[in-house]
Amino acid sequence: MRKSSRFSLIFFLVFHGAFENYWEFQKTISLMHQLESLSNQKSF
């Protein structure tokens, strides 16, 4: 039981860190999509 609780704690910490960076990640993805759509419009 102790090993699984330690694993869940590590999982929680990793998940919390990922959630902290989630908004930065979303901004980067949306920016990449905008640039991609702009380049697609130029090629047509």
List the helices and strands and how they pair.
Elements (H helix, E strand, L loop, with lengths): L1 H19 L1 H22 L1
Could you provide a short overview of the structure?
By secondary structure, the chain is mainly alpha-helical.
What fraction strand? under 5%
Number of helices: 2
Q: Name the shape in a single word.
A: rod-shaped
Radius of gyration: 19 Å
- Return the structural class: mainly alpha
Instruction: Give the tally of β-strands.
Output: 0
The end-to-end distance, rounded to whole angstroms, is 60 Å
Low-confidence stretches: none
What value does the average pLDDT take? 86
Give the SSE order as H and E letters. Answer: HH
Share in helix: over 70%
Task: List the defining traits of the structure above.
44 residues; mainly alpha; 2 helices
3D architecture notes:
It is a single chain. By secondary structure, the protein is an all-alpha fold. 93% of the residues lie in helices and 0% in strands. The chain has 2 helices and no strands. It has helices spanning 2-20, 22-43. The longest helix is centred in the C-terminal third of the chain and has 22 residues, at 22-43.
